[in-house]
Amino acid sequence: MDAFISLANGLTIAIQPMNLLFALVGVLLGTAVGVLPGIGPALTVALLLPITFKLDPGGSIIMFAGIYYGGMYGGSTTAILINTPGESASMATALEGNKMAKAGRGGPALATSAIGSFVAGTIATIGLTFLAPFLVELAIQFGPEDYFALMCVAFVTVSATFGDSPVRGLTSLFIGLALGLVGIDILTGQSRLAYGVPELFDGIEVTTLAVGLFAVGEALYVASRRHIHEEKLEPVRGSLWMTKQDWKRSWKPWLRGTALGFPIGALPAGGAEIPTFLSYSTEKKLTKHPEEFGHGAIEGVAGPEAANNASAAGTLVPLLTLGLPTSATAAMMLAGFQQYGLNPGPLLFAERPDLVWGLIASLFIANAMLLVLNLPLVGLWVRLLAIPQPWLYAGILVFATMGTIAANPSPVELMMLSAFGVLGFLMRRFDYPIAPVVVGLILGPIAESQLRRALSISLGDPMVLVQSPFSAILLLIALVALILPFFLKGMGRFKAAED
Amino acid sequence: MTRRIDVAGLVIAFILLAIAGAIWWDMSSLSISSVYGVGPKAMPMIVAVGLAILALGNAVMAFRGELPARDSLDWKPIVLILGGLAALIALIRFGGGFIFATSILFAATSTAFGRRAIITDLVIGFVIGVVVYLLFSKLLTLSLPVGPLERLI
């Protein structure tokens, strides 16, 4: 098996002491920042990008892998203990998890979420190991028109198909695409929408956008409604350990959650929100203890948590094999690769197998580290949650501006950061999704160059886009996925029904 | 429940339309210079047209009053945080240095979140600033903006 050999090579890279250290730092940082309310893994990676750009790419990317999984774990801790999920993927966990914590069963809730994440993460990473080489084989044959069509599917699914409102999702996406236009056009050297500002010639920095939207925007939003909403931290009482009964009720939801999460994450279907809620409603239907749902049923934590982690690993399939990010966190990972001049895709598998397989192997290691470290360290994470809110957000803003200052100490860059903060605040207030903006900014210029490449090969004949059967089918899928939600107004509303 | 026209929604729709207009106007000043296929104008055209259509969609939602419900809003903390950011930008622009800028932003944000201990928070922000400055400039060899204080360290 080729995948085995590649993975074994990856493992020899990942267990080098330096790389183990990077993975450990990533896991700890990711969990620590992920635990902070309102901060997800996307922001964690965005905050760290400017600081790591002088480090060696292999080590940094391994660290990002640790952050990716660690941030996910930290987010669920917050969801269980204070019921303010940092990201939409943890919303399903909060439903039952917070009830369990209120009933004094916070320990088992955290345990089932940690062990479930480990089981799901490991199975899904094995899935990634075997699926990736197949997709790479396939992707080698793709022409620019196929890539363009793939990106159209990603655009539509990320923004329109699975959100609450396709119009709002598409609005976010197009704001991102518009921001992606800024800068000098590579093919002709003409500047677009830069208005002579030198900071804009290279385009808008993804990290500036992400940190502005997520960190500054979140701080403004929380501050503006502090008078309405007080958070309450549930102390972890009683035993951390799961009883025999808990194990019995958890293992099937773990596996079912994995089975839902990985394929949906691997398809460009827009992040972890759908599988987690699908898993929640599945467990609610299948449970032998329906009376406990709504009052803290362990199945309702085990399933969605597994689905969340499995889909996180699934998201790495299109990211690594096709260079296609389908969530804000994946978009930040892509930005992390680009910072070192690396472009994920079939070529990277051929040119830098050490890097790709080192990363995949590190995912296994990060996953195991999380399991070993996090349950003993839960007291530390809880103490992080107890930081007074004013200091917490003051600290977040200091670190947010610091990253920008370290990367580019220019007042213009900081003004852009503040402006994106205001944008993020307004989008939260008016309920526009934020991930499509980030995906639009990073994927828009790539989609444009693929489109132009396809059309220049065909000497300007637009029929090239539908002549390859693959791209024709993908464009059809994108079209259906775009139009369908307008007819099925009820779709994607199952979230509201679960509350 | 009577549905009322949502003024804020209309403003959003208008802003989207204005952005679409700005992109179109910027695009029309480009000169086409690719021989085959589409030039640098195609993508701005797609984005501008898309934004204009979405402006229409948002306007329809606003007229129908379909925007999600919003909570009441407290403006003071927003002004404080943005003020802190403005002070930070000004200090860095005019050579006040990283540490003072950080200290002010920390205190402003903390006040925005309801703390009433500005002096203490200025000191905390100052200490964070010093630690970060040392960490960055000595350990990571990243250069942060220097002011009078940083030159002393």
TrEMBL record, chain A:
The chain crosses the membrane at residues 20-49, 61-82, 109-135, 147-163, 170-188, 200-223, 355-379, 391-409, 467-488. The keyword Glycosyltransferase does not apply. Keywords: Membrane, Transmembrane, Transmembrane helix. It holds the Pfam family TctA. The keyword Transmembrane helix applies. It comes from the Bacteria. Residues 20-438 form the DUF112 domain. This is Tripartite tricarboxylate transporter permease.
TrEMBL record, chain B:
The chain crosses the membrane at residues 7-25, 45-65, 77-106, 118-136. InterPro entries: DUF1468. Pfam families: TctB. It comes from the Bacteria. The keyword tRNA processing does not apply. Keywords: Membrane, Transmembrane, Transmembrane helix. This is Tripartite tricarboxylate transporter TctB family protein. It comes from Microvirga brassicacearum.
